[in-house]
């Protein structure tokens, strides 16, 4: 039998899944870090995590900028998505939001350090919205690729936001344990955020499973490739480590609110949040490599 | 007009041109002259293509048949690559071409992810003769030739006159007559991209196998070598 075909690269590799994961974590870390300013009341318990949260968000932005620029074929043109802004491209919006988010992180820290409290609340609100728009736009970036069936569903941005909510809270829980800021109220808030995030992720994972199994030829091929080449990421890292393990640790509040347990569940859900994104990214691309 | 384009689709608009291609698969002999002509016209580097002819044998000896499927950018009337480009580097020409501004492209590869036909590629940075590299490239329907009253290089060289090019809006053009008078199909029309490369009588087998991994030993080996070369991964996300 004779056969001749050309082979294609998948356009987006590990750089994108790392970026999706990191920037989502930064967005929610900022939202939680600024929650005491934004809401006050019971969220004052998160005050000890404010500076670590801001530093985490800032460090991640410092990593993500060069990572994204390095990923471009023309790194010196990294400002073009803003200079030649194209309103129908989520990537243009994302570039703009990323810059504004970074500015909010720096300004919030600056005004807080200077003791100028007046701009803090607006910066907390705007920055948190921008922070959560990071996973939203990365999800939209996939969702608008309507010719890739795995991505072209409205729940992808929702999934990315939920994963970010979990991973931001998880990162702060780990930092809290390392810094020994044992505050029962803070643990209670982080526990509630993580538990609801992981539980929602489980439902979204099941939804993905069903859409693969009942989907079109392309979806089923995607499912076959995932099970063939990325089974560890799907079943072990995403489902077992990333969803079921933290769910088991967090489901009983009396156990789940202990800082050590919260941190272990946090690390597991961080692994899952990354693996789930990687799975989604490859599942959308691999079915078309031979087309 | 579909959102995000820079020009209205011109198909069926009086007084405007709408360039299109018809590929008559009854005439294609799989000689690859079109691929060679395209490579020569644009100095297309090794490992990437603006146009390709997929070949597949079907059936069992002695009842076998060889199928060909020439492929290129479909210059869609509703191109997702244009809509998704963050810098408007790729744009819709008013005569139907989907073109690329190299000086604006950042090679974020969003257009490649958006294209359902895998019709785009990244030009390597290491080119010696033509210095354009590190940007996304694609078939242009040889716009530079067509604007000088020539046909695209692949059409010019096609031995069996399988590839036919012309103005779909011109009632006297061959493509208009073929699209109007023959049963033609377009690829992945269900994706809503309104592709403007029409095929006459494609074999269902070769259209169906588009998602399939290679079956023959040689093609499998080629695929494995390709992906191994590209940083040893199953796929590769960067610029070669």
Structure description:
The complex is a heterodimer of chains A (291) and B (240). Helix content of chain A is 75%, strand content 1%. With 291 residues, chain A is mainly α. Chain A has one domain (14-288): Up-down Bundle (Formate dehydrogenase/DMSO reductase fold), CATH 1.20.1630.10. The relative contact order of chain A is 0.14. Chain B has 240 residues and is of the alpha+beta class. Chain B has a single domain (19-229), classed as Alpha-Beta Plaits, CATH 3.30.70.20. Helices cover 23% and strands 20% of the residues of chain B. In chain B, the strands form 4 sheets. A 4-stranded mixed sheet of chain B has the order 8-1-10-9, with helices on one face. Chain B has a two-stranded antiparallel sheet with strand order 2-3. A two-stranded antiparallel ribbon of chain B has the order 4-5. The longest helix of chain B is centred in the C-terminal third of the chain and has 13 residues, at 217-229. Mean pLDDT of chain B is 86; it is low at 232-240. Chains A and B meet through strand 1, helix 1, helix 4, helix 5 and helix 9 of A and strand 2, helix 2, helix 3 and helix 8 of B.
What keywords describe this structure?
heterodimer; A: 291 residues; Formate dehydrogenase/DMSO reductase fold; 12 helices; globular; B: alpha+beta; Alpha-Beta Plaits
Structural class of chain B: alpha+beta
Write out the strand line-up for the largest beta sheet of chain B, numbering strands in chain order.
8-1-10-9
CATH architecture annotation name of chain B: 2-Layer Sandwich
Question: What pattern of helices and strands is seen along the backbone of chain A?
Answer: EHHHHHHHHHHHH
Number of strands of chain B: 10
Strand content of chain B: 15-25%
- The count of β-strands of chain A is 1
User: What's the order of the H and E elements of chain B?
Assistant: EHEEHEEHEEHHEHEEHH
What is the helix content of chain A?
A: over 70%
Q: Output the CATH topology of chain B.
A: Alpha-Beta Plaits
Q: What's the multimeric state?
A: heterodimer
- How large is the radius of gyration of chain B? 18 Å
Strand content of the residues of chain A, in percent? under 5%
CATH C-level of chain A: Mainly Alpha
Helix content of chain B: 10-25%
- Distinct helical segment count of chain B: 8
Indicate how many domains the architecture of chain B comprises. 1
What coarse outline of chain A follows from CA principal-axis ratios? Answer: globular
Largest interface: A-B, 53 and 64 residues
């Amino acid at each position: 039998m004779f056969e001749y075909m050309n082979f294609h690269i998948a356009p987006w590799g590990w750089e994108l899944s790392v970026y999706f994961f990191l920037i989502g974590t930064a967005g929610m870390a900022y939202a939680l870090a600024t929650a005491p300013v934004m809401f006050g009341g019971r969220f004052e318990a998160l005050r000890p995590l404010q500076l670590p949260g801001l530093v985490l968000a800032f460090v991640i932005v410092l990593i993500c900028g060069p990572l994204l620029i390095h990923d471009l074929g023309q790194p010196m043109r990294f400002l073009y998505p803003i200079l030649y802004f194209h309103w129908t491209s989520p990537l243009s919006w994302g570039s703009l939001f990323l810059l504004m988010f970074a500015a909010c992180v720096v300004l919030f820290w600056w005004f807080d350090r200077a003791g100028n409290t007046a701009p803090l609340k607006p910066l907390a609100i705007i920055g948190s919205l921008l922070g959560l728009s990071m996973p939203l736009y990365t999800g939209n970036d996939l969702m608008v690729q309507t010719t890739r069936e795995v991505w072209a569903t409205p729940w992808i941005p929702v999934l990315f936001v939920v994963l970010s909510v979990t991973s931001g809270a998880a990162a702060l829980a780990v930092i809290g344990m390392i810094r020994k800021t044992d505050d029962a109220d803070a643990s209670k808030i982080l526990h509630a955020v993580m538990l609801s995030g992981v539980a929602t992720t489980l439902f979204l994972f099941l939804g993905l499973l069903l859409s693969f199994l009942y989907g079109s030829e392309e979806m089923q091929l995607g499912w076959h490739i995932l099970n063939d080449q990325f089974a560890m990421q799907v079943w072990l890292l995403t489902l077992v480590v990333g969803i079921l393990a933290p769910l088991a640790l967090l489901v009983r509040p009396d156990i789940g609110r202990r800082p050590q347990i919260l941190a272990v569940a946090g690390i597991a859900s961080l692994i899952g949040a990354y693996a789930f994104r990687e799975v989604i990214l490859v599942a959308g691309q691999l079915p078309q490599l031979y087309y | 007009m579909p959102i995000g384009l820079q020009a209205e689709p011109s198909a069926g608009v009086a007084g405007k041109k709408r360039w299109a291609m018809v590929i008559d698969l009854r005439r294609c002999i799989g000689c690859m002259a079109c691929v060679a002509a395209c490579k020569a016209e644009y100095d297309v580097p090794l490992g990437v293509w603006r146009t390709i002819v997929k070949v597949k044998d079907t059936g069992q000896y002695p009842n076998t048949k060889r199928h060909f499927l020439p492929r290129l950018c479909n210059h869609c009337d509703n191109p997702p690559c244009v809509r998704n480009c963050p810098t408007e580097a790729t744009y819709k020409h008013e005569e139907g071409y989907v073109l690329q501004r190299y000086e604006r492209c950042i090679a974020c590869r969003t257009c490649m992810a958006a294209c359902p036909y895998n019709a785009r590629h990244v030009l390597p940075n290491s080119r010696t003769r033509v210095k354009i590299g590190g940007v996304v490239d694609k078939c242009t329907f040889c716009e530079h030739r067509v604007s000088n009253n020539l046909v695209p290089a692949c059409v010019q060289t096609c031995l069996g006159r399988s590839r036919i090019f012309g103005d779909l809006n011109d009632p006297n053009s061959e493509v208009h007559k073929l699209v109007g008078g023959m049963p033609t199909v377009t690829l992945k029309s269900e994706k809503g991209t309104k592709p403007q490369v029409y095929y006459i009588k494609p074999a269902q087998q070769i259209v169906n196998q588009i998602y399939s991994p290679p079956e023959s030993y040689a093609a499998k080996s080629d695929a494995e070598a390709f992906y191994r070369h590209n940083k040893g991964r199953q796929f590769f996300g960067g610029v070669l």
